């Protein structure tokens, strides 16, 4: 009997399945008894940016928890509709921690340092040093550590539990407003005590190597600070330029590719000033969309590189860029 492959019948499919089952029992046929590997590929991605080489590493995923408790201003129905239409779960917003290491040819620059040993959001964070080594980068070779702000998941990996800097040959860069706020027990609310402790643990031991960046300043060749306050008092984005290419490192301008994008005035529970943060987000996303500037989002799906565009309804859409595996 001939089975037409362009319009298989139910009987034909059943016969095919039966034949496969018989063949699987023959000597030398493949079996399904291979062990589960339960391992993943190395957690890094490398690409070119103008004349520079960029490497993405990770501090691991950060399970934020119930999005309804963390993203504010949407009704439960609105939030569920946004998440469902984008094939995202309703019960747990899992964020990435996409860390950029930029080799300019003269400097090796690390952007943000993850959570360190703090397990505030579970056991999946704290992978930065491991993923750096997977990428062939020695922490001792880092010349500059650039921090968008002093929250636990951005400055938490500067110093080890024994007080030893993880990047012993680096100069460190952050806004003075964020340093002054997050290391001062009189300013940080009691509900953010873990943030205070983490900032003091990681920033005070390197105080003599801290350089404070200012809005608009090109503090390293090709790296310009852009003040983007609200999420924290001194939160900063960075415009990176090399040759003819540019990339804007967003830090925490937006934590979520849907919930803080479709309606950018939605608020986030961890913002120091949620109203200011929302206005900053709207302003900066408008600028980035208008100028078609590629972005790197710290918390978006790995590796967090793409574009933002206006969605025609007063909000924005994120378009991830495909990874290019040939350099």
UniProtKB/TrEMBL annotation:
Sections of the chain in a coiled coil: none
Top-level division of the source organism's lineage: Bacteria
Domain Metallo-beta-lactamase: 96-299
Pfam families reported in the protein's UniProt record: Lactamase_B
Alphabetized UniProt keyword annotations: Hydrolase, Metal-binding, Zinc
Family (UniProt): Belongs to the metallo-beta-lactamase superfamily.
Protein name: Beta-lactamase
